[in-house]
Specification:
The chain is mostly beta strands and 355 residues long. The protein has one helix and 29 strands. Helices cover 1% and strands 56% of the residues. The termini are close together.
């Protein structure tokens, strides 16, 4: 089912991969983010750990499907990257933007300049912190279109959530920030079907829904046995919310009846990311931290979850995963990019689905 096309050393520990969603059957672009702790060799590990700075890189790659060639186009030195998302181009003649969140509590925005095939930084915005307080790590990022702007949601290591607006001119405006979780807010995601709902999950084992109109909490779900680490509001099935957790369970909820799950699947190792295929969204790629990258089928008619296969190439923490937006012209094979942490490994793979 899986064939590795390329294996790349990212040098720094790799934790995020995002394909540019534009659908060109021949050429695709994707970014990879890295996170590296800087060890001070003059101090012991215990003493140095709280003081160690974190550095990172953003890599830009080009993949040509016709000859299966992979090229690293750019390397940008920055703070450690924890999450990234591509924003769509505002119009046919404008460029898409890559947004990243990092260990300094910053949102960085890069414009992808198509002609030069490179990223150019547009904006760097810092999350609000108390005076003389170290900034939290910005852990997760999501976005949605809102008229002529993009609304961004960011969660942080203090349990906070932040709503921002980003304009086509590159201006970032804070809408509001609030404390939601008692420990790290590992993840946040907009409801794809309702413009007023934002979900968040934290290390306090809580899954929450927030009404962005009233600034009130809609509900709190306590089904998880460990921290809630990733969320997916399904793009095709209204009211379907999938969650991943350190407790290793992939859960499917109906957001209208949150007291029990529609389905559960034990994937092992804790689940860090969930990515539906852009053309076949019932195929979900799951980054299962301490085991592998798993391919899961969501039942189209009868809600259910089934494991189709597992990509075992990575031997370290499996963090970053995403699908190429293009499908094979002739055989319908799919392409995915995955990356892992301590072995700083990026893989590009071909996936064949048995019908």
């Amino acid at each position: 089912m899986f064939t590795t096309l390329h294996s790349e050393d990212t040098e720094y520990s790799a934790d995020s991969v995002e394909w540019l969603p534009e659908n060109d059957p021949d050429v695709g672009y994707f970014a990879c983010g890295t996170y590296q702790l800087v060890q001070d060799e003059t101090e012991s590990t215990e003493e140095a750990a709280p003081k160690r700075p974190r550095k990172g890189r953003v890599y830009l790659y080009q993949y040509e499907a016709t000859n299966s060639a992979l090229e690293r186009l750019q390397c940008i030195e920055t703070a450690a990257i924890l999450d990234m998302k591509w924003l769509p181009a505002w119009s046919d003649d404008s460029n898409p933007h890559l947004t990243t969140v990092n260990s300094l509590g910053q949102l960085e925005v890069y414009e992808f300049q198509r002609d030069d095939k490179k990223l150019q930084q547009r904006t760097c915005f810092s999350l609000e912190t108390e005076p003389q307080e170290a900034p939290p790590l910005a852990l997760a990022l999501d976005w949605r279109r809102q008229e002529e702007q993009v609304q961004l949601a960011i969660s942080d290591s203090n349990g906070g959530l932040h709503l921002l607006h980003y304009s086509p001119q590159g201006e970032v405006i804070r809408e509001r920030s609030w404390s939601a979780h008692g420990f790290e807010a590992w993840t946040c995601a907009f409801d794809r079907w309702s413009p007023h709902l934002l979900y968040s999950g934290g290390d306090d084992m809580l899954l929450m829904a927030h009404d962005l109109r009233t600034e009130q909490q809609v509900w709190t779900n306590r089904a998880h046995m460990a921290g809630v680490t990733c969320l997916l509001s399904h793009p095709r099935h209204e009211n379907h919310l999938l969650t991943g957790s350190y407790d290793e369970q992939l859960r499917l909820f109906d957001t209208r009846a949150m007291k029990r799950t529609l389905a559960e699947l034990d994937l092992g190792g804790g689940i860090w990311r969930l990515k539906p295929h852009p053309v076949h969204p019932n195929l979900i790629l799951a980054a299962c931290m301490y085991t592998n990258f798993s391919l899961v089928q969501l039942g189209a008619d009868d809600p259910g979850l089934s494991l189709l296969g597992a990509y075992e190439e990575h031997k370290s923490i499996c963090y970053g995963a995403d699908w190429s937006p293009s499908c094979g012209k002739d055989d319908g094979a799919l392409t995915m990019a995955t990356c892992s942490f301590y072995d700083h490994k990026l893989c590009l793979s071909r996936v064949e689905i048995s019908q």
